[in-house]
Write a structure and sequence with these properties.
InterPro entries: ADH-like_C (IPR013149), ADH-like_N (IPR013154), ADH_Zn_CS (IPR002328), CAD-like (IPR047109), ER (IPR020843), GroES-like_sf (IPR011032), NAD(P)-bd_dom_sf (IPR036291). This is Hydroxyacid dehydrogenase. The structure is a single chain. The chain is built from nine helices and 17 strands. It is globular and about 60 Å long. Helix 5 links the parallel strand 11 and strand 12. The model has no long low-confidence stretch (mean pLDDT 96). The protein folds into two domains: 200 residues, Medium-chain alcohol dehydrogenases, catalytic domain (Quinone Oxidoreductase, Chain A, domain 1, Alpha-Beta Complex), CATH 3.90.180; 131 residues, 3-Layer(aba) Sandwich (Rossmann fold), CATH 3.40.50. Bound molecules: zinc ion (ZN) (2 copies). The site of one zinc ion (ZN) has 9 residues, from helix 2.
């Protein structure tokens, strides 16, 4: 199937229109016409080569929603016309214990990321959602609940699940004291989801400038990390902190905020941290942990959760040809919303 997308053709290059082929449907494949795709900080990191050399041309995008246009002969869960979604992975071994337990993101044989990775069967590079169409095996396609507005659903597939999974893993309940560091794409979703779970949520930001924004998202208060008095007063007052900072940073200013057995979970940054101090960890049995997206079943659960609790990412719709400007804005600061590409703006020609 011929399709068109926007691709980077070299490290740090601007994205430009790119015509390419999607594979012929295998018996277990679903073909999707993409209506919207969210713009994730990972897309920018990958295009820039921040996480290592990439197979260019590369079409990014792993917050994908659209409509089923065709299904393979063995597909039983989806029909033409269904509203569906695809997140950060499109395949895994389906045989290891982690796959069997719905933790495909931690597949022992390595999951297949939605873009920039060799297909398990053909070795061709996977290409992401900044395009008109995608073909994905049935097991990695999600159903969008009828209640959800499809245009605002896309960022749930990465920003949503990346923050929902640790909130569930660390068993957030009504009254759990949750801190969220950073109020960008991930952080603003972490606040909304934790609030919907009934948690007592505090946004943690460099200054007080985002206080009104944090409260509008449902946070009880904002703690400014630059205010040493406020930070000292907040010592040992959190059960869980979700750390969404997308760059190398110092966790030592945050770990003392955790109460006994509390955990700081890193979800925003892949790579080295500034040197962590063991003192607050040992004197307080505190933990530093990491978490990667969520499994397919958990992502489906999240879509239902968002429908039930009316939780949506803050979205700013853009045209496909505005992507390079959106990347520049993303690079210059943590915007408390997600850019979402309206794929109707991408001409098929
Ligand atoms: Zn992402
Ligand atoms: Zn596996």
């Amino acid at each position: 199937m011929k399709t068109v997308g926007y691709a980077a053709h070299a490290e740090k290059a601007e994205l430009t229109p790119y015509h390419f082929e999607r594979r012929d449907l295998r018996s277990n494949d679903v073909a999707i016409e993409i209506t919207h795709c969210g713009v994730c900080h990972s897309d920018l990191h990958t295009v820039n080569g921040d996480w290592g050399p990439q197979p260019y041309p590369l079409v990014p995008g792993h917050e994908i929603v659209g409509i089923v246009t065709a299904v393979g002969q063995d597909v039983s869960t989806y029909q033409v016309g269904d509203r569906v979604a695809v997140g950060c992975m499109v395949d895994s071994c389906q045989e290891c214990d982690h796959c069997h337990h719905g933790e495909e993101q931690y597949c022992r044989n390595g999951m297949t990321p939605t873009y920039g990775s060799p297909d398990r069967h053909t070795g061709e590079t996977t290409q992401g959602g900044y395009s008109k169409h995608i073909v994905v095996r049935e097991e990695f396609v999600l159903r969008i609940p009828a209640k959800l507005d499809i245009a605002r659903t896309a960022p749930i597939l990465c920003a949503g699940i990346t923050t929902y999974s640790p909130l569930r893993t660390w068993d957030v309940q009504p009254g759990t004291r949750v801190g969220v560091i950073g109020l960008g794409g991930l952080g603003h979703m972490a606040v909304k989801l934790a609030v919907a779970m009934g948690a007592d949520v505090t946004a943690i930001s460099r200054s007080n400038s985002k206080e009104a924004q944090a409260k509008a998202l449902g946070a009880k208060s904002l703690l400014a990390s630059s205010d040493s008095d406020a930070m000292a007063k907040a010592a040992s007052s959190f059960d869980l902190i979700i750390d969404t900072i997308p760059a190398k940073h110092d966790v030592n200013i945050y770990t003392p905020l955790l109460d006994l057995d509390g955990s700081l979970v890193i979800v925003g940054q892949v790579g080295p941290l500034a040197e962590p101090m063991t003192t607050p960890l040992i004197f307080g049995r505190r933990r530093i942990a990491g978490s990667l997206i969520g499994g397919i079943a958990e992502t489906q659960e999240l879509l239902e959760f968002c429908a039930e609790h009316d939780v949506y990412p803050e979205c700013e719709m853009i045209r496909m040809d505005q992507i390079n400007d959106a990347f520049k804005q993303l690079e210059s600061g943590d915007l408390a919303h997600r850019f979402v590409i309206d794929m109707a703006s991408l001409s098929a020609k």
